[in-house]
C-alpha cells in the first residue's frame, strides 16, 4: 500500500533514469503551461521539456494540423525522401526565418535529436578543414553521443564514456575565471604561439548561453571576438543553439543580438514545435561538401514533426512574438533581482538571458532543495550548473501573465520555506 508512486519505474527501468527522480509523480495530461499528475494534481511547467516545448503543451493550431494530417493518411516516415510536409517546412523556414535575417544557410536533417546535429557539425568541420582538433568551453553541454560528449565541458558526464575522449581542447568560457581574466587573450596567445602545443582546430563550438552548464551568458563582445579569431585563423564557428535557439533568449537565434554569423548552427528541441523529434544543421553553402549518404540515418524525416514545425514558424511571422518574450524576460529578471536582494540567505546571483534565467545559489544543495519544495507546491523546475547550483526558470515562451505570475509566486514561497 505504501509503495512509491514510481514503483513500476523503480523496479523495471534502469538506474540511469534521472528526471523522474526529481519529479516524483506519474503524469497523464498537459496543456499550455500546465501538467496534471495521475492523482489529479496540477503543476505549472517551468521546465518546458528541457526546452523542447517553447510553445507549451498541445498547442491548439499545431494539434489541429497534426490531427488533419493523420486523418488524411499523410506519410509519417520517409527517411530523407521528398515529401510535401518537408517541402512546406523548408520553404517556410527559408521565408520566415532565414530570408528576413539575410542569413544564407543550407539546411540539413542530421537525425532526430540535438546530439545528431552536433555530431554532424563536428564531422563536417573536420571534413572541410582536414583538421581533427575542436575547441570547446568549460561548462558546455553538447549531447550524449561520443563526439558531442568529447566537446562537452563536464567531467561527470564525460566519465560516462569510460575512456578518455580525444580531439578536444577545453578553453575557459567568458567570465569563467571572473572579470579580471581575459579569456580571449589567453586563446589568442595559445593559437599564435608555437610553444603552446595547441593544434589548429577545425572548429570552435559554443553556446551563447550555457543551458546545462549554469545559465552562463557570454557577453556579445566576447562572442564577436571569438568570431574574429575564427575568421583570422580559418576556424569554423559552430553555434549550438539546440537549447538557446528557437526564441528562448528572445530572438529566434540566440546569436542575433551579438551580430555574429556562425558557419554552422545546430538546432533541435523546440524546432519540432510540438515536442516531436526534429533536428537541423545549418551551414554556409560553401560547406556543402558531403557526398549523398556520407552522413545519414533512418529518422531524418519525421513528417509529423515537419507538420508541427511548419505551423510553429507562424509565431515568427511578425515581431509581436519577440516583443512578448522580451516583456516576460524583463518581468522574470526584475523578479529574480528582487528575490536576490530580499533573501540574502540565498547568496544568490541572477544568471542568463531571455526566458532562460535563474538564480545561482552559493550553498551546496540549496537550489535542489528549492526545486523540490517548488515541486511539492505544484511548480516544475530543474537545476543547472556543474554542481546543480542554479535554479533554472524555463517557462514556455507562450505562457500567459497569470501563469507566469503564479509560477513566480510559488517560487518565492518555496525560497521562503527553504531559506528561512
Ligand atoms: N546541445 C545543447 C546545448 C543541449 O542543451 C542539448 C540537450 N540538453 C543537446 C545539445 C543535446 O540534445 P539532445 O538531448 O536532443 O540530443
Automatic annotation (TrEMBL):
Signal peptide: none annotated. PROSITE patterns: AA_TRANSFER_CLASS_3 (PS00600). Keywords: Aminotransferase, Pyridoxal phosphate, Transferase. It comes from the Bacteria. One of its GO terms (molecular function) is diaminobutyrate-2-oxoglutarate transaminase activity. This is Diaminobutyrate--2-oxoglutarate transaminase. CDD domains: OAT_like (cd00610). NCBIfam families: dat, ectoine_ectB, PRK09264.1. Its EC number is 2.6.1.76. Pathway: Amine and polyamine biosynthesis; ectoine biosynthesis; L-ectoine from L-aspartate 4-semialdehyde: step 1/3. Its cofactor is pyridoxal 5'-phosphate. Belongs to the class-III pyridoxal-phosphate-dependent aminotransferase family.
